[in-house]
Amino acid sequence: MNSKILPLIAAIIVLTQHPLKAQTNRLPDWAMGGFVRPAGVNPVIRTDSTAHFYDSLLQREVDWESNDTFNPAAVVKAGKIVVLYRAEDKSGIKIGTRTSRIGYAESKNGASFKRKKIPVLYPRNDVQQTYEWPGGCEDPRVAVTVDGTYVIFYTQWNRQVPRLGVATSKDLVNWTKHGPIFRKAGSRFVDQPHKSASIVTMLKGKKQVIAKVNGKYWMYWGEAGVFAATSDNLVDWQPVTDSSGALKALIRPRKGYFDSGLTECGPPAIMTDKGILLLYNGKNQPGERGDRRFTANSYSAGQVLFDKQDPEKAIARLDVPFLRPMEAFEKSGQYAAGTVFIEGLVYFKKKWFLYYGCADSRVGMAVFDPKHPAPGDPLP
């Protein structure tokens, strides 16, 4: 046998006996991660059919978190992590047809939670009912000011137009609703579908607090692209527009990538020494429109870095997700294509805890330890 063929045959045998492993996903130094799912703790929040409360609109008891519990916000309060999660009842038959309410869970270690039996933010007979009924209060993101005022942004869903609503609280339980964030920006903004707000925060000592950018509060928002808005009081927001007065997209979905379908803002953005870091959710389009390595229509998590002096300017962006649906609980539920939908990120005991929705059905958790950085989820 030809001596040049022997090494080739040997290589083929080795590959057959030892198939290629998933490719390591090394993250650049500006990115956060990787995030590691602790063994044996996920999902950290599941449905609870025993939880009931009296709904004043329906005038009866409701099993408010019996169908799904997912898409969580998170914040640190009095040495504990508080997760505010979206819960759906059994009033409908598919995504978007049930009523959502926001529940409260707290943890001393970030993994095991004690939950309240009744929701803390939900549609009721108030001035926001026209925006929130019958769809409810969805997909919260929460952050805190230096003086201890909690600010929550959530989707007000009346099953006609999704709108970003804002509410404030001193205890994360009793909330004052302020209504749609663009209500003073004009009807063309407030009546245009908008959701998914990520307000800019920073670490002040060991505490993550809401920050200002160039003298104003700043948020990234949107799902069909990443847009921005500014505020002087955290309640009334003005969208960032271009020279023609149209909404200005700072980034858009990319053909051929994991985020080819949507770029939906995730948890509160973080000021770092490299810039303003936004973690977001990307939806993968089927076929050649998306990245064929990842499941069609699945949601994975990406990162984009904006300039601190010019927060409209994206200066770096991951081409592959740092977190993607890999575990069984992330790929089974009411969204079978698979979802890790990130909305909660907190700095706790010198680590970053990330909370996310799993297949629109449960809440998962992953941890990034800056002292022991890890790669992102392996690539297929």
Structural notes for this entry:
The protein has three helices and 26 strands. By secondary structure, the chain is mainly beta. The strands form six sheets. Strands 12, 13, 14, 15, 16, 17, 18, 19, 20, 21 and 22 form an eleven-stranded mixed beta sheet that branches. Strands 4-5-6-7 form a four-stranded antiparallel beta sheet, with no helix packed on it. β2 and β3 (60-62) form a beta hairpin. The protein is globular and about 55 Å long. The chain starts with a helix and ends with a strand.
Write the layout of secondary structure elements.
Blueprint: H1 5-17, E1 23-25, E2 53-55, E3 60-62, E4 68-77, E5 80-88, E6 100-107, E7 114-115, H2 129-132, E8 136-144, E9 150-157, E10 162-169, E11 176-180, H3 187-190, E12 197-204, E13 207-210, E14 212-213, E15 216-221, E16 227-231, E17 237-239, E18 262-265, E19 269-271, E20 276-283, E21 299-306, E22 314-317, E23 340-348, E24 351-358, E25 362-368, E26 376-379
Parallel strand pairs: 12-19
Antiparallel strand pairs: 1-26, 2-3, 4-5, 5-6, 6-7, 8-9, 9-10, 10-11, 12-13, 12-15, 14-15, 15-16, 16-17, 18-20, 19-20, 20-21, 21-22, 23-24, 24-25
Number of helices: 3
Q: Helix- and strand-based class?
A: mainly beta
Radius of gyration based on Cα positions: 21 Å
Largest beta-sheet details: 11 strands, mixed
The count of strands amounts to 26
* Global shape: globular
Low-pLDDT windows of residues? 1-20
Mean pLDDT figure = 94
> What string, H for helix and E for strand, traces the elements in order?
HEEEEEEEHEEEEHEEEEEEEEEEEEEEE
> Portion of residues in helices?
under 10%
Q: Report the span from N to C terminus.
A: 37 Å
* Beta-strand residue percentage: 35-45%
